[in-house]
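Notes to self after the Tuesday call (sharing in case useful).
The group wants a holo model before anyone commits to mutagenesis around the pocket. I volunteered. Ligand is flavin mononucleotide. Logging inputs and output together so the record is complete.
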Amino acid sequence: MSNPVLDNIRTRRVVREMTDEQVSEEHLEIILEAGRWSPTGSNHLPNRFLVVQDAELIELIRRVSPGIYSNAPTYIFVCVDRRNFPTYIDEEADDPVFLMDVGQAAQTMALAAHSLGLASGPVTSFNVPALRKILKLPDRFTPWIVLCLGHPQPNPQFVMKPGKRRYWQDLVYRERFVPWRDFEVDSD
Ligand SMILES: Cc1cc2nc3c(=O)[nH]c(=O)nc-3n(C[C@H](O)[C@H](O)[C@H](O)COP(=O)(O)O)c2cc1C
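Result:
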C-alpha cells in the first residue's frame, strides 16, 4: 500500500553528507512544530529543543561528539528539562520514559525534514558534561539526542547502502509469543 505518509516513512534514510546551504527559518520552524506534536509519557511534555547553527559552536560540539560524522549546518538537540516533571518522580533518576519521549520527537522531526526534501541523521554519541559547558546548559537540562539537519549532497562521495532492515514478519510475535510466520489465523 502506498500513501504520502507511508512513502515518507519508507524512503527516509540517514544522510551524513550535506551541502553548505543552511536550513531556512521557515523549514526549521516547520520541523520544530512537528516535534511539538510527538507524544510524551503521561503527556508531561518534557521535551525541549535546542537549535544550534553558529559555525563556531558546531565546531566545538563536533570535537566532543564522536558520533557526528556529518557536516550538517544545523543541530536540533532534543533535551529533557526535569523541571517539567511532577515531584513524585525522582528528580535525579533517568526515567526511561524520557528516552522514549526524545526518540519519538527526533523521529517525528526526521520525517518532517524528509518530507521537505532535507537531510537528517540522529546522533546519541556525544559528551554531555562537555556539551553542558559549551552550550551553558543548566544541570536540570539534559540533551539526549541530536538531529543533524541540512540539505543532502547531490553527489555524495560515500554512497550509503540502502538501510538494512529485516522483514517485518521476522520481528513480530502474536498472542502467546508465537512467531508471526508460525501463527495460524482462524479463517472462520
Ligand atoms: C538512537 C539512535 C542513535 C544513533 N546514533 C548515531 C550516531 O551516534 N552516529 C551516527 O552516525 N548515526 C547514528 N544513528 C543512525 C543509525 O546508524 C541509522 O539510523 C541506522 O544505521 C539505519 O540507517 P537508516 O535510518 O538510514 O536506515 C543513530 C540512530 C538511532 C535511532
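Two things stood out.
Residues 26 and 146 are 20 Å apart (CA to CA).
Strands lie at 47-52, 74-81, 119-123, 141-150, 173-174, 178-179.
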